[in-house]
Structure formats: C-alpha cells, structure tokens
Known about the structure:
Largest sheet: 4 strands, antiparallel
Number of strands: 4
Strand content: 35-45%
CATH class: Alpha Beta
Number of domains: 1
Radius of gyration: 15 Å
Distance between the termini: 38 Å
Shape: elongated
Strand order of the largest sheet: 1-2-3-4
Amino acid sequence: xxxxxxxxxxxxxxxxxxxxxxxxxxxxxxxxxxxxxxxxxxxxxxxxxxxxxxxxxxxxxxxxxxxxxxxxxxxxxxxxxxxxxxxxxxxxxxxxxxxxxxxxx
Length: 105
C-alpha cells in the first residue's frame, strides 16, 4: 500500500525518477574508458528519504564496461538522486563506484 501511495504521489508531483537515473547512467558512461561498451544490467532503489523540498533516493546501478585491454568488467555505482516536489529537473551524483567485489574504482 505504501508503494502505491508513493508512486501515486510521484505521478501527481511530476517528479522525474527516470531522469535522475538517466543522468547517473550518462555520468557512468562519461567515466568509462570505452563509453560505447557500457551495458547496464540492473537498477534498484537502495534507500529513499523524504526531505523538505521533495525526496532523496539512492540507486544502485550494476553495469559491465570494457577496460583498456577490451576485457568486460562488472561495476556497481551508487547514485544519489534528488527529486523535487516542484517538478524541477532532478539533481544526481555518483556517491560510490566499485567493482563487483566492492573495491573502489
């Protein structure tokens, strides 16, 4: 029931969840050695918190990207997305980037 209410509230406020996640994906591509090799595998919401101006959510994005030798490596990015109630564009930032073992990239 809570999930339904949250989704309904996001629809009413015109919040852009996908826009924030898309921004994070763009930032991951920009950081990659070979941006065209980045393949996104999974996106999941890790946490969500209501703020005075909207909502703050942290997403975990799992992706594969090739290194300089052409070997695909798995990476996990945690991305903080601010979703404003006013419908303004979202703000996003990568807060953590690790390999599949948890080592910083």
